[in-house]
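Notes from the pairing session

We agreed to fold both candidates in a single pass and log them together. This is the raw record for the first candidate, unedited. Please don't reformat it; downstream parsing expects exactly this layout.

Candidate A
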Amino acid sequence: MKFQKLFVVVVTFFTLTLFSQSDKVYRAEKDKIHNLIHTKLKVGFNFQEKELNGEEWVTLKPHFYETDKVTLDAKAMVIHKVTMNNQPLDYNYDEYELIIDLPRKYKRNEEFTLYIKYTARPEKVKQKGSAAITSAKGLYFINPTGLDKNKPIQVWTQGETEASSCWFPTIDAPNQKTSQEIYITVPQKYVTLSNGKLEKQTINTDGTRTDYWNFTQKHAPYLFFMGVGEYEIIKDKYNNIPVDYYVEKEYAPYAKDIFGNTPEMLAFFSKITGIEYPWNKYAQIVGRDYVSGAMENTTAVIHGERAYQTPGQLIDENVQENTIAHEAFHHWFGDLVTAESWSNLTVNESFANYSEYLWLEHKYGKDEADAHMFEDVEGYKQGQNYDKHLVRFYYNDKEDMFDAVSYNKGGAILHMLRNYLGDEAFYAGLNTYLTDNKYGTGEAHQLRLAFEKVSGKDLNWFFNQWYFNNGHPKLSISYDYNKLRKTVTVNIIQSQINEFKFPFAIDVFEGSKRTRHTVFVEGRDASFTFPFTKQPDLIQVNADGVLLCDITENKVLSDYIHQLKYAENYVHKREALLEIAKHQDDKNAFNAVADAMDDDFYKIRILALENINLINKYSKKSVIDKIMRIANNDSKTLVQAAAIETLGKLTDPALKPVFEKGLESKSYSVLGKSLVGMYYIDKQLAIQKSKTLPLEVKKIVATPLTRIYLEENDDEELSFIASNVMAGMFLSPNKKIQSLYKEAFDKIGKSNNTEAIKNLSDDIVAKGIQYKQYNFDKVGINLLRQMVQMQKTSNPSNKENNLKAIQIAMAKLLE
């Protein structure tokens, strides 16, 4: 699973608690009393009541010991009948577990099939869901009665972690594997998607159609999937395997632009694992109001609406591409071999996370991959994650495992392991692990044994410190130069509680000449001495950027200038650029930042443009001319946009032609930045352009438009701004954007605009429900109460209608 990131903003009227303290209950793998063998379902939907009417034939056998009872997970259902061979069976049901009395004791080699007729009631389910999931109700009806004319009717399922048992009785544990058949009956206008192959479609006399989906291989119950809706199916293929994209009609022309790299991903992942894609199809569907980023249901991946993009966005970047790779790699790590328990989630999610790096490196180069790894590592470091083990047998709730340790840190750890073993041994180890455990389960120990078997190296030390312990090295670095002997000694002191050992790359720079030394650090205090021909200009530690660590060292401005010019790793260039940018009153520093605008890697160019100080004595016309050329001609539209934003800060009428050209760009990022730049030199033209934009474009460039409309005090546009406030305040990592939308919230809260009040209130309700896991329902109540106070204080003429809209929203959140 890939999560949509939520950036927490603490404002004056609320505080969020994202992490609870782990308790001391040992979280074991679920005991195998019975094994699932096969699951056959026939389902239909009651859209009005948001219910599923189902029949199930589930085949099981005792795992080892003979038994005369079966316990199935079945949440919030109505059980109508349980039989075996047409004979009714006694059972007990408490709305969580269905305990069935068998007619006799069955031995471990005896299979039996139970028939269960039931009604699933997902709205009655009461259980916590994975990060950002409202509640794990398993089955989601979207606009089921069609009242919202701006939203299609859809049904989709979400099984991870243990929510498939909200729509069919099963043993809902990742260490179970079953084949499946599903007969889905829907109105004929709808398309269906499930795991495996669509074998047959039958038109029924009542205007419905029954689709028969057959999945003959084994996978875990949480990977079962159903999707229903009015979709266009865009067909693609990998070798002879169907690769299909299920999208709403509006996005059909762009489906291959969004998902079109999928066949190449499947080919690449097949190559590096040495295991050809092991399933009979690969389909991807986009679900409205989906509760996360995406989910790796076997052969039937679901994505959230963020996947929907138009050419004006895709020309800048495909923001879903990493997620597409992530879910594809899960079809090896997670689907083919599944974590035997949530404690071992790392063997699913750490690999899916690292696949993003592997794909970016393969497709776009090492700089792109390293930049992505840096962002992931920062996400781990900035959270409350330091004390958590990667493999955790003690946690408060299984959903707590879905965090920046299992994902981000786990991916970084695999990167270190790959670096230590070398590519050939690393990929051979992946093949051994997958081959030995295919269609079964795995844990970290099996992973270690696979790598040891291939490489011949003992890896207990690596797994003990990175998988079964917490934290990361915190290093203090100092240097001793001996000019007589022409040597430099690098001193490394570890200050964290747990002592680590690790390979460590150190570069010695003599001018542009770089000499790489790879050492192995053991102990809290280590020193390594290297020769030099002339006094080094720079010593770069963790030179390959592989080690997950914090480093403290004393560097001066000249060190950083040399580092920016000659270091190869993105992280070191980035670090140097940001440090140099603090000292642009120094001519050499300013020139270094200006030179970085020509860097080969576009993210360094963007960073230089964002940090160049054009208001100083060294800001020559030549530098501004360079930025103008970048704004007009850079190969990356995101760099063009950054250049336009930088030029906009000058508020120079002479730059009007740059902004005029940007207003005609196909890139929405360039268009948005050009609108703001133009606004400060020709307000009338910028506002006129903004008013002519189609609504779908306005939504995409909402942030620059919000900035303009707020400065203009354009109350007519408040209703448009209102629908973007919550996303801007809570989903953006940019503090300036968060502040902008907080200002918008305050303005709308005090306004006389009833439509804006209603739009904002509705959005608060939607986000409050969607992010209930983060207590956003409580946050929403606080926000609505804040709006009530604002209305009472400002006392607008429409106060009565405004308060009514707020009260209706509050009632929905309090339900």
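Candidate B (folded immediately after A)
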Amino acid sequence: MARLSQRDAGRSRRGRVAEARSALGGRSVAGQVFVSQVVIVLLLVVAAVVALVLQVRHDSTTEARNRSVAVAEAFANAPGTREALDAPDPTAVLQPRAEAARKATGVDFIVVLNTDGIRYTHPKPDRIGKKFVGTLAPALAGKVVTEEVDGTIGRLVQAVVPIRAPDGKVVGLVSAGITTEHVGGTADEQMPLLLGAAAGGLALATAGTALVSRRLRRQTHGLGPHEMTKMYEHHDAVLHAVREGVLIVSGEGVLLLANDEAERLLHLPADAEGRHVLELGLPADTADLLASGRVATDEVHLVGDRLLAVNQRLTDLEGGPAGSVATLRDSTELRALSGRAETARERLNMLYDAGVGIGTSLDVTRTAEELAELAVPRFADFVTVDLFDAVLSGGQPDSGTDLRRTAFSGIRKDAPLHSVGDRMRLVASSPQIRALHSGQAVLEARLAESPGWRAQDLERTAQVLEFGIHSLIAVPLRAGALVLGVVNFWRSEKPEPFDTDELALAEELVARAAVSIDNARRYTREHTMAVTLQRSLLPRNLPEQNALDIAYRYLPAQAGVGGDWFDVLPLSGARVALIVGDVVGHGLYAAATMGRLRTAVHNFSALDLPPDELLVLLDELVSRIDQDETQDGDSAPVTGATCLYAVYDPVSRICTVARAGHPPPALIHPDGSVEFPDVPAGPPLGLGGLPFETADLELAEGSRLVLYTDGLVEDRERDIDVGLELLRTALERAGDSPEDTCRTVLDSRLTSRAVDDIALIVARTRALGADQVAEWDVPSDPVAVAQVRADVTRQLSRWGLEELEFATELILSELVTNAIRYGGEPIRVRVLRARSLICEVFDSSSTSPHLRYAAMTDEGGRGLFLVAQLAERWGTRYTPEGKVIWAEQPLP
């Protein structure tokens, strides 16, 4: 028995030794905990010692810096320090003070420097007068410098502070410092104590860790990590309190464990654990997923009335048992919230697109179409926009019930709704009229149950319901206090009717569109007014004349109204003036300025001035307009105006042209060739003080002169030379008539879009033949008047104008008599038969006669009065050689 007891005791001792070795060897959980905690405590102790040493050194260095700064600032600001720098020998005054202060404060040195860094004081006298070792620039700038450097007394921490004069100027420096030997001494003295404390702490921590590990070893019965994992993988790994369902299924598909949430979500029977998942009555797709053991991520399965998001992972990836773990999450509410969030996001996107996509043009109809196109099919299946007629023309909307269908958009084109352009008279019970009168949107969720809507048109509403349209939202288009019309949103494909949330969205969508439609309406009104003004200022009908066959075109700009203009003016002597001009800018002011210039040209042309002199007068007028507008301050001045003035004489076939900053004319010869004559380019109107030049062009009969504004040949995308070349190409293929020429030029689309006005005139020349002109030279003798009368009588007989003989004889008698009496030689008479009979008398004098009433006692002064009574028009035209007095009589 004793031997047995000894053997048992030996076995017991060997068992305890084995357990201890196992614990220390780390094979058990307790051993691993013991080793890890000892290592952690050791690391913490070492880290604490190192941190303490570093902290002591840091604190010592910081203290050294602070003390150095304090000592240096105290000495720099001490009474007499600054004054000593101005002494003949600063060292004699400052050296004793510096040494006394150094010993009193415990620093290693106090050095006084001048601004060049030369020492006045130093603990070692042989260093006085030498260059200081350290950084001085910041201190010279008035700052305090602290640094660690290798100085003349070793490695040290020093501070440099400035000595300031009363005006703030730095006149010297003071440096104080302590060597690093003195700084680190405290830490070295404390090191044995620190290491001893660390060793004691490590011993206590090791003993405590050994005690805890021994207790843990008893509680875990010496089990290793693998056994502990197997023990807990079917139990504590599953938390029954989590809100997600957890299922553990074996490799054979048997349900090993299901927590409470899984039982609730899947409606599992009480004996579900231990049964195959295919026998639990689960939906086929869910059961197949659990039995297959395949990996799944957020697969959605419908179980009863719930949508479950299933995630499944395998358990044997790292040596674990075969099987899978599945988690279940109820996503029914989340899906509902996600759907509402997605709907809200789509609506916000639609409102954003409305802000960007509606109102891209200033056209009322196009803006309404953009609204309709945006809402289909994102919000409604069909959208119609109905506006008052006055809105379409830019006017104020009336309060009637008649609307015009302005825009329509839908998923299909065969909907039995009113077409675009239809005029509709709505009844008072209709949702549209109720919306217009109340100013609030009207929701007709079910049209089949809306008698007020059906009363509008029983036949058409029945067709609408049969087509499948079942719900309507009518929203008034309101812009401030104005109601412009109504927008209708129709639903057919989606079975659910419109709801109140969609009603609010429709109101917001229409509110954004209403601003753009009102802006387009206002622009249409202003544009119409400007166009009306401009067209009223342009010639409506060309005057009758025989010198030119004329065709013209005028195209206003797409955006705004410009100041382009043209005119045709008959002049004396069967001549005709052609004018083309352009006022820079757009809008009412440009149109009004154009009208002023056109009126001025009419008045100046009555003076029969040459083209260059007429342009000088226009230039002065534009300058005065600029000055008046600048002084007024309410209107913008004329920023520029151009003009081309041409006068064609059908007798000589000479066309005299002058231009002020305007593009040159084009000339089409009778053979079809095209050229741009060299006409001197004068400055634009309004510059003032610069002369203009003319060019005389001899035109063959049948030539076509083409005048235009720069909008025809110039735009922002190309140079004017390119436009002129395109114009040449178009003119070369144009027909013979002026109308064909205008049509060909505009059809060639020299510019992609009319960003500027275009004025175009094509004039084909005619000539007065020799049989329509009669001329005589008249001697400066009163006797010659009788011969003139006889010659004119014979000429009128040849022309068949005997009815005009008496009046013509009197007119020429008076005009020739005046030329002989008051004028100078040579004297010539010319008679022209054009649309009227024109009599002209030329003399070399520049004196012009004036019409006046003669007194009873006057012997003369009645000749011009007789001429004015007999002639339809009369006047004076000046030439470089003299003047011409002319009179016109209508042909019988």
